[in-house]
Design a protein that fits this description.
Number of helices of chain A: 18
Shape of chain A: globular
Low-confidence stretches of chain A: none
CATH architecture of the largest domain in chain B: Orthogonal Bundle
Order of helices and strands of chain B: HEHEHEHEHHHEEHHHHHHHHHHHH
Low-confidence stretches of chain B: 440-448
CATH superfamily of the largest domain in chain A: P-loop containing nucleotide triphosphate hydrolases
Oligomer: heterodimer
Number of strands of chain B: 6
Largest sheet of chain A: 6 strands, mixed
Strand order of the largest sheet of chain A: 6-9-10-3-11-12
CATH class of the largest domain in chain A: Alpha Beta
Number of strands of chain A: 24
CATH topology of the largest domain in chain B: ABC transporter involved in vitamin B12 uptake, BtuC
Mean pLDDT of chain A: 85
Structural class of chain A: alpha/beta
Number of domains of chain A: 2
CATH topology of the largest domain in chain A: Rossmann fold
Largest interface: A-B, 56 and 30 residues
Helix content of chain B: 55-70%
Number of domains of chain B: 2
Helix content of chain A: 25-40%
Mean pLDDT of chain B: 84
Shape of chain B: elongated
Radius of gyration of chain A: 24 Å
Number of helices of chain B: 19
Strand order of the largest sheet of chain B: 3-2-4-5
Structural class of chain B: alpha/beta
Strand content of chain B: 5-15%
């Protein structure tokens, strides 16, 4: 019997780049195939070819042994392929039901049959075993719930193949667990699943087989039991990474950042902590626990109701990000694209933005100083780009993050608040960012590392703070002996 | 090539329009003005030598006076004896000829331009005044040249666009931040009325001094700047959409202008008030055009060389990212709206000066022409992108099309249709550019 899906010799070139150089992919019904690879390896392009968003230059796609050609996303969808992208394709103002049936409403003479929609939606949600208010506008749903709506939509289309692009990137550990049980359920129903992720532990937890892409080529296709974590990393990177978390111990100095009684509505309730010079403090918890909000309050991005921030023993009055930056605090936002960068503008413009006061004289920008400083960071951080004038949105995720880092490094801030600094970044770039965190700590900076990835928090922190529903619920001082379970226990309150 | 087109595409369009209208309006030209007079003098000297006795016949129009003055100057400098210098109508010429005959004077030639040279009295001078003998009528040689490219016409185009271009510079700032300013047309009226009112009631009406006039104009500009600042405050502190705020300001400013002027135009200003809008002190470039060029150079320096410009682009590109990078977003937005208002005030002063009066009806629909210039110039209405000189090119495209249609005799009604189509075309072009960029993009951002 032919496989459910078989892609053969897929080639796709963009001007100057061969994104895919003859990739083969097979997927059986009832199988979870993990698709892994560094950024730029060609995963997204392969998915887009399958989704009909980008027709391949060469190669063939067979469904149940029958050759198909997709030139538009709609054709792929009609053939039973549902792709759930990282950025969901939901209309925020429409309800869950309306989104599920968008484009295929059960209708009679143009009138939508709402009762039928409700009935089918309820069936779907029951089948998924989840509680989502089908009448709530999607913008009011959590990220996890929106993802469930996307999955429900795939089922409503009778999809036989479901592709998930980084589905766990913004989920909490429990939500990931629930996603996995849904995936297992889909698997028993004979649906083929392609699971794209950077998180290796998840791949070992859920996948049946793994396909590794590197530089547009499939370098390995193996049952998950026949490959180890280290081997997988080596296959992805093409070289051996010495360590995944190169934590370096540096002498810890006096307290630099002291936060007392930080408060803002139900999101942040009476948060107090200290970060010393040379210390990396991990801050973790479930999504929505108030970690990002805490960082934003310290940074002055939101108005705090109460709380004192001290730097080097002096109370600083921070009312705006501008005040915070002047005081020497930097915030790397979790959402790089929406908050960290002006995507359409050049790398140079983005890099200079917080540093313009230093690069200018009487309001005139000294472009030479700006270019020289940027050139230093491009070299130091090994930012890969065609030109500093390139729009930053054209860079890969890892390089975008390095540009954000460069702009704060140039500012010489003493306190760095890193909010999910490695989200959506490939393994190689992650290690570079970890090394940079080490260097900053060694230089006597105070670092707050907010992350949902527990191995990262455990691997990089000197001390770990855990939040639950706006409060600090625990502190792990002996990180070497702490486990993921310890953190989770504190995180659920 | 693609990049060149997206950066300079509009300049190319302007050039093509210029070439098109040059070809279409190619016509036989009669030399006129001072240079025409000079050519006439040269022609007379070439044909009759410096000992000739010449009668100069021109009309008393402004252009002809310049023509006659130049001709006279050059002829006398060469030693030619001017037996008469008629500036008027055909019967003036006949009277002069009769006087010459009566006085028994001699005449070697009549110097004229194309118009006066075709008057019957001159064409038939030998038959009507046989006493004078055979008198040739000398006119400057005609030549081929496009009407469009005549210096007067080009000056006219620049002059026409000055006010809209000044508004459009401020509008470009606002649009790049992602906003819009609909109030600028009304602010023109408010500024013109305020300036003339202050000159009439405070500075001493027709007896106003230069200082008094400058003070009145600065006050008008400041008032418009404050109106802009108010709009900016509404946009930044209360998050009211710019469209609504400036729509309200448009009604308020126009109403205020009518209120303080009682709906009538104010014209009790000194003649010297015309200097800004009507004078041409620098190489006969109109002063308004000089002001416009200075303003555009300043605006370009701000946008490309100064931190303020970087902040404006960053806010339009991603306001939240800009704020989190320490950009003083509110201050920049307040400044941008105040600048737009202030520039509208400058436009109003130029208009009042040009028309030597202020009326509440000035600047109707000008905000739309300014927005059109910005959009045609390639600035994206969604913010973050655009160039100041693009706007100037956009303004000139509009002016050139208008001028070209006037020269080729297109009716004003059809002109409006053409403008609508041009605006739509410019936006379509912008979208196509966006699509080209999207197509070029995936190469570098393949995987997530």
């Amino acid at each position: 019997m032919p496989p459910l899906l078989s892609m053969r010799g897929i080639v796709k070139s963009f001007p100057g780049v061969r994104a895919l150089r003859g990739v083969d992919l097979d997927l059986d019904g009832g199988e979870v195939l993990a698709l892994v690879g560094e950024n730029g390896a060609g995963k997204s392009t392969l998915i887009k070819v399958l989704a009909g968003a980008q027709p391949p230059d060469a190669g063939s796609i067979h469904l149940h042994g029958q050759a198909v050609r997709f030139t538009r996303p709609l054709e792929s969808r009609q053939a039973g392929i549902a792709v759930i992208y990282q950025e969901f394709n939901l209309v925020p103002s429409l309800t869950a039901i309306e989104n599920i049936f968008l484009g295929q409403e059960p209708a009679h003479a143009g009138f939508v049959r709402r009762s039928k929609e409700q009935q089918r939606a309820n069936e779907l949600f029951t089948r998924l075993g989840v509680a989502v208010d089908p009448e709530a506008p999607c913008r009011e749903l959590t990220v996890a719930q929106q993802q469930l709506v996307e999955i429900a939509r795939a089922l409503a289309f009778d999809a036989r193949i479901v592709v998930m692009d980084e589905p766990s990137a913004t989920l909490t550990p429990q939500e990931v667990e629930r996603l996995f049980s849904i995936i297992r359920d889909l698997r028993t129903r004979g649906i083929g699943i392609i699971y794209v992720s950077h998180r290796l532990e998840e791949i070992f937890a859920i996948a049946d087989r793994v396909l590794v892409l590197r530089d547009g080529e499939a370098v390995a296709w193996r049952p998950i039991g026949e490959v180890t974590r280290e081997e997988l990393i080596r296959l992805m990177v093409g070289r051996r990474l010495e360590e995944e978390f190169p934590k370096r111990q540096v002498p810890i100095g006096p307290p630099l950042l002291v936060v007392r009684g930080l408060r803002c509505g139900p999101k942040v309730r009476d948060v107090s902590f200290v970060i010393r010079r040379g210390e990396v403090v991990g801050l973790t918890g479930l999504v929505g626990a108030g970690r990002t909000e805490t960082a934003r309050l310290i940074f002055g991005a939101d108005c705090k109701e109460a709380g004192i921030v001290e730097l080097d023993g002096r109370t600083v009055d921070i009312r705006s990000p501008r005040d915070a930056i002047r005081a020497g605090i930097a915030l790397l936002t979790e959402d790089r694209k929406a908050q960290g960068l002006v995507l359409a503008q050049s790398v140079r413009d983005n890099f200079a933005l917080p540093n313009l006061e230093r690069f200018s004289f009487l309001g005139f920008v000294r472009r030479r100083a700006e270019r020289q400083a940027l050139a230093r960071h491009i070299e130091g951080l090994r930012i890969r780009l065609a030109s500093p004038e390139q729009p930053v949105g054209h860079l890969s995720g890892g390089n975008q993050q390095k540009v954000v880092l460069a702009k704060w490094l140039e500012r010489h801030c003493e306190v760095l608040l890193f909010d999910e600094p490695t989200r959506g970044i490939d393994v190689g770039a992650k290690v570079e960012i970890y090394r940079l965190i080490n260097d900053l700590a060694a230089a006597g900076k105070a670092i707050l590392l907010i992350s949902s990835e527990l191995p990262e928090v455990l691997g990089m922190s000197d001390r770990i703070l855990v939040m639950h529903e706006g409060r600090l619920t625990g502190e792990l001082t002996d990180v070497s002996r702490a486990t993921q379970e310890d953190i989770l226990r504190l995180a659920v309150g | 090539m693609r990049r060149f087109l997206s950066d300079y595409g509009m300049a190319l369009v302007l050039l093509l329009l210029g070439i098109y209208y040059s070809v279409v309006t190619f016509a036989l030209q009669d030399p006129s003005g001072a240079s025409g007079g000079e050519q006439l003098a040269r022609e007379v000297l070439a044909r009759l030598g410096p000992s000739a006795r010449v009668l100069l016949v021109t009309r008393d129009t402004r252009e002809d006076i310049a023509f006659a003055d130049a001709a006279r100057k050059h002829l006398e400098a060469a030693g030619v004896q001017l037996v008469g210098d008629v500036r008027g109508r055909p019967y003036d010429a006949r009277a002069e000829l009769e006087r010459l005959v009566a006085a028994g004077g001699k005449l070697d030639a009549i110097a004229a331009n194309q118009v006066t040279g075709s008057w019957a009295v001159l064409r038939h001078v030998s038959t009507r005044f046989p006493q004078l003998g055979e008198v040739p009528v000398v006119t400057p040689p005609r030549y081929w040249w496009p009407n469009f490219l005549k210096a007067d016409n080009l000056r006219n185009i620049a002059d026409q666009i000055v006010i809209i271009a000044i508004l459009a510079a401020g509008m470009t700032f606002v649009v790049i931040t992602g906003g819009i300013d609909l109030s600028v047309g009304s602010l023109i009226a408010l500024s013109a009325v305020t300036a003339t009112l202050l000159i009439r009631d405070v500075a001493g009406a027709e007896a106003a001094t230069t200082g008094g006039m400058i003070g009145a104009c600065l006050a008008a500009v400041a008032l418009c700047g404050l109106c802009g600042l108010f709009s900016g405050a509404m946009v930044t502190f209360f998050q009211v959409p710019a469209f609504i705020v400036t729509l309200a300001m448009m009604l308020v400013a126009r109403g205020l202008a009518s209120e303080v002027s009682n709906g009538a135009s104010i014209y009790q200003v000194p003649a010297s008030f015309l200097w800004l809008g009507g004078g041409a002190d620098l190489f006969s470039v109109p002063n308004g055009v000089v002001l416009m060029i200075v303003l555009y150079i300043a605006a370009d320096v701000v946008m490309t060389r100064m931190t303020l410009g970087r902040y404006i682009y960053a806010i339009g590109g991603n306001a939240e990212a800009a704020r989190l990078s320490g950009v003083p977003v509110r201050r920049v937005l307040l400044l941008v709206y105040a600048l737009s208002g202030g520039l509208a005030g400058v436009g109003g002063v130029v208009m009042a000066s040009r028309l030597r009066s202020g009326a509440p009806t000035y600047g109707l629909m000008y905000e739309l022409y300014a927005i059109a210039a910005v959009v045609v110039g390639g600035t994206s209405l969604s913010g973050g992108e655009g160039k100041i000189f693009g706007t100037l090119i956009g303004a000139f495209i509009i002016a050139v099309i208008k001028n070209g249609m006037n020269l080729t005799g297109v009716t004003p009604f059809r002109q409006e249709v053409v403008f609508g189509v041009v605006l739509l075309g410019a936006v379509l072009l912008d979208r196509l550019k966006g699509r080209l960029r999207l197509r070029a993009k995936p190469q570098a951002s393949k995987s997530s």
